[in-house]
Structure formats: C-alpha cells, structure tokens
Amino acid sequence: MPAERRSARGRSAVGRFPSVTFGFGEDTEEEKEEPKENNVKKGNACKEWLRKVCPCCCPKHDDVIDTEVTLVDGLGKEDGGNEVLLKVKSIDLLKSKSGANRTEHHTHLYQSDNLIIRRGQSFEMWITLSRPFNPSSDELHLDLKTGPLAVVAKGTHVIIPLVAKLEGDRWEAAVVKQEVKKIKLLVNSPTTAVIGRYQLTVETNNQNGSASSTHDPANDIYILFNPWCQGKYGHLMVNSPDDQGVLEGNWSGDYSNGTSPTVWSGSVEILEEYHKKNGTPVKYGQCWVFAGVVTTVLRCLGIPTRTVTNFSSAHDTDVSLTTDVYLDENLEPIEYLNVDSIWNFHVWNDCWMARKDLPPGNGGWQAVDATPQETSQGTYCCGPASLAAVRYGQVYLKHDTGFVFAEVNSDKIYWQKNADGTFTQIYSEKKIVGISISTKAVGSNERSDITHLYKHPEGSNEERIAVETACSFGSKAKAYSSPTAQDVSLEVTLDGDGPKMGKDAELMIKLKNSSSQQRSVSLHSQVSVMYYTGVHKATVRTDTTDIEVLPNEEKILEWALEYKDYKDKLMDQAALMLTVSGRVKETQQILATQFSFRLRTPDLIIKPLGKAVVGKKMSVEISFTNPLPQVLKAVIFHVEGLGLMTARKINYGDIGSHASVSLTEQFIPTLSGTRKLLASLDCKQVRQVHGVSDITVEEKSNAPL
C-alpha cells in the first residue's frame, strides 16, 4: 500500500508570506575563482552569518564529491558482462515551483529553483538506478549533511533508511512507486530537524558491493522552519555591535557616510548590499529598518513574524520599570540624571513560538527588538519576551520582559531633590506610555491595534495591578506604596476529578482573612482557552466582583463556566486557565493566581467477548456515550494492540446528541500473555477520547480434539 503524503495545507493562515527572493543574483566570475591563500578569510563574516540564519540566501559552492564504489572480489558483473552492482544514475527532487513539493510546503513563492521544504512534512523524489531495484537483496539509504562539520549526534548528519511503513515525525523514506529502473520515494523529516542547507547523496549496497552517488549542488535540499506544525525556533543577530550584523544604527542626524534610514523602502536592497560588501554592516538603520529586516529574514526562514509600532514608547535605563524625571529643589530638571526617555514611536517585532522554558500560558507571540538600545547579558539584543508575561507584569520571566514592559506600560514618575540629597516622589503620570500599539492587518493595509495583547485597558484595576507587580521587581520598588498588611490569601480549587466535557465547569475561589478586621476585596477573573503548548487562544469570559470578608473568615465563592460559553472555543486538549487577581481596599495588598484545568472527556469502554487464544479469532465490543447536546459529525475510531491486531481505522459516521453507540471488532491474537488493546475516538466536536483494556491471551493448545 503506498505511503500517505502528509500535507500541511489548510492548517493555518499563519506564515503565508508574499513572494520572497532567495539569493542575491548570479555570482561574478571573480567570485567563482579559487581564492588566493592570503585572501581565504575575506568575506567570511557575511557568508557565515547568512549561512547561519538563511543558508538558502548564501549557498556554499562545495567541490563535487567523487563517486565511491566498493566491489566484492570476483563480483560486480553477471555472466555476459551485465552489471549487478546497484548505482545511482540520476536524482529528481521534483523541485518545480508548481509541483507538490513546493506548493505543499508553501515555498512556491520563493524565487529559487532549489528544493526548499519545511521540516515536519513529507516530500517526494525520484531516483534512477542502473538496474531495477530489488528490495529483497538491495539496500538503499539517503545521506544528508549540513554545516561545516556534520555530526550524527547533533542532527547535522542524517542517514535516512528505507522503511516499509512511514510513522511520521522522524527521518524516514519509503518506496511509493517503481517503474523499471526508477523508484519514487516519500521522505519524512521530524519537526525538530536542523534548519539549513543539506548536501544529498544516495548510497546503495548489496552482496556485490556498495556505491555512493556523486554530490551535485543542484540537488542540495534547503530545510526551513514550519509555521504549520509545532517546532522550536532559534536566534539571530541583525544589528551590528556584537555579531557583525546587517545594520549599523545611527541617530545622530549625520548620515553622510552611508544611507539615511528614511531612504530605505525594503529589506532586499539592504541584504544585497550586506552580501556584496562581504559582511560589512550596512549604514544606516533606525528602529523601523531593523524591524523590517528582522521580518524579512525570519519569515524567509519560516518563523511567523510581524512588525510592531508602539507610539509613545518608553526607554528605561535603570531597570526601575518606570520613566523617571528628576527635578531640583526649584523644580528645574536635573539633565544629567534624566536619562530615561519616551520616544515618539518605536518599532520592533513579534514572533510566534512556544515557550516551553516558561510556565504554561506564555507561548504565542513574543516580542523581539533588534534595535541596539541596551545590552542583555552582555549582548545588544532584546527578547523573546512573552506578551502574556508583559501584560500581567511578570517581569521576572525571561527574556528582557522588564524592558519591554517599561516600553509599553511604565508610569512617568517625577522626583524632587531634598536638601539632604535624597529624592521624594511628588507626582506621577499613568496613561502616557504605550499608545495605539499597532501592526499591519492581515490581508489589507489597514492598521490593526494590538494594544490589548500588551496590557490591560489603561486605568483598569488589572492594569494597575500589573504595573505594581512589575515595579515590585524593579530598582525603585518603593515608588509604589507597599501594602500595610499581607493578611488575605487567595486560592482556586476544584472538587473530585474536575469538570466534564459538555457540562458546566465549576470551581471554587477561596478567600481567607487572617486578620482581626474586616477586609474588602475587589476581584477580577478571566477564563481563557489555551493551546496545549501553553499558548493563549481566546478569552471566554471576564468577571468583576466586590467581596466583604469578615475577621478570621474563610469565604468560598462558587465560580461556574457554562457549556454554552465554551462549546465553540475549545482546542484539542480542552484546556482552560482561570486567572484571578484583586486588591484589598484597606491595605492595598495585591492578590493574584492562575489555575489551569481541563474538561474531562468520556472514556471508551472496551469489553472482550470470549476467550483470547493465540491463532483463534476473538471479538471486542467498544462502547461510547456522546456527552454533548449536539451531534458528533464524521466520527472515526482507531483500534490497535501489539500482539492482538494491527492499527485499524473505522469510519463510523455521526453519533447523535447524548446517544450511546457500540461496535464489535474481530481479530486474531498473535502473541500470548497480557496484552493491551487501545482505542480512540476522533471528530471535530470532541477530541482526546481514549480507552484501554488488558486482554490475557493464552497459548494455542496442541492437544488433539
């Protein structure tokens, strides 16, 4: 049975980028000449940087690898001189821009004739051999190498075997078609494959010897990140101070030694100049130019990226997470102390990625800023900082979250110098930083306001809590009045095994007042749908309530989320997060907690029918009850068990609202002992439905009847 092509088409609109040109034109004759020994390192900075961040843009023209053939003595030809050693005559990577490889991988708009694919997806290729391939006596595998020193342990040297069945998310290949001396392979790559340009050779082996194909640079394979499947992302440098990056910044107003930042109209010209000048940073750039180049390079590599503009953007220089203005005794500015600033606007980038290094809920859009403003761990870079962490003032989460928070939501605080040289806070402005944070709308040239992703509404209690939470970790934590007591606690709990799919979700919010005085608490709650990677998908509901807690009282609040509120918003794992925050009126104590929970899906019930004996047919009954008050459409059951039955897919059809169904499957056990039979149900309306049954299989009896 032919292996199935795994398509990522239609999974998401994220990452559908406009036509991007790969490469920088044809090499000149001088570039093709062998460099002299004393000029060997000239241009390495540019080429190494480009190969590191985008190997497609700056291919390395390596010498062709000679074909190696190893023969067993006395073998190699049949009687009459016919060749029996299996050799590769040609390789066709099916790299046409209109072909399936390029279109299915969303790389058909790249202006390159190379095979450009995305990791985590399959691609096809033809191999023409010197004779028909015989799977019973011939062996064949693909050999891929990337980087200057390819190592198997680091994933830069990959040996891809032929397998009988593709399993997915690993390096593997299967023969899907054979035509005389030609074989067509379907090749899978894992979602964790190293990004880069791979040299491809094909190696064959049989009893008569082995052979390796000649390396042809035209058959190199370029593997990019894949926005259509889960993966991991990396890091690059665009500014020049630390890593010979693409651009040199200049805010002096004198651009006589280069190009004014306002002249640039796109990134291609900048990248071409960087390449042409052998890695010399291009003069000059400012924030919008840095951000534009980052957008181009990261989208080229396959990382979803957008350019973000923040109007009235603060620049915090002392990690106070506030914008500070210092005045003398006469209320005159002390200029040498006033190093914080608020820019008219500042431009950076958001990149989409999972953040498994952070607590759940912090995946998704991450702020990265290539403009060299402040160093981060000794390097001029900023981010990635989770927008969720910025929004809630969780500035202790990496990377550079505090700096980004100050850019969008810091207060402007005025300090007056005292006679003894100390300073006293005299005034603060709370709504002047982070206005109309914007990006380009998808599919149009309209402005899309994304301020709500960076912070709560200005002046809201949630926004004030975020600011004060953030500043408590800053260098001027005392700029905000500390609570006079910490005597109220907040906790979220649930009873039993938790809420069930199709039912209302009921939790309990517990407030405990350990003081001898009454406390008034203003509580804010927000429940959100989460991806299983911790990425926020959508807000389902928000609530605000005021609670009076008597002295030494423990008050339990019942919190419920109705089915109708979440039924059309859940993701595969039915994961939700309840965020509760608040303030104690009498003491200004801040309360905050997040509680993740999952709606339980029903189990499949598997019941063996009859005795299980090796070699004898038996049956199992699989039953299921639809928990939802709606029809489940196009239900599919999957059943398998090692030693019991191979994987089986059953297209069941629809299951009515709250209906119970059962089906019977027959199989012949092949192994004795205790075996597990696993079943799952899948449809659009409900996911993650499983069942398992232990079945004890007896040995086949040899006794005569």
TrEMBL record:
Cofactor(s) required, per the database record: Ca(2+)
Chain sites annotated for binding Ca(2+): 409, 411, 458, 463
Gene Ontology biological process terms, A to Z: keratinization; nervous system development
UniProt keyword list: Acyltransferase, Calcium, Keratinization, Lipoprotein, Membrane, Metal-binding, Palmitate, Phosphoprotein, Transferase
Alphabetical list of PROSITE patterns matching this protein: TRANSGLUTAMINASES
EC number of the protein: 2.3.2.13
Membrane topology: Lipid-anchor
Transmembrane regions listed in the UniProt entry: none
Molecular functions per Gene Ontology: metal ion binding; protein-glutamine gamma-glutamyltransferase activity
Compartment list: Membrane
Cofactor note: Binds 1 Ca(2+) ion per subunit.
Domain Transglutaminase-like: from-to ranges: 279-372
GO CC term (a single one): membrane
Active site per the UniProt annotation: 287, 346, 369
Domain of life: Eukaryota
Location of the region described as Disordered in the Swiss-Prot/TrEMBL record: 1-41
Function: Catalyzes the cross-linking of proteins and the conjugation of polyamines to proteins. Responsible for cross-linking epidermal proteins during formation of the stratum corneum. Involved in cell proliferation.
Assembly description: Interacts with PLAAT4.
Family according to the record: Belongs to the transglutaminase superfamily. Transglutaminase family.
Record protein name field: Protein-glutamine gamma-glutamyltransferase K
Organism: Neolamprologus brichardi
Lineage: Eukaryota, Metazoa, Chordata, Craniata, Vertebrata
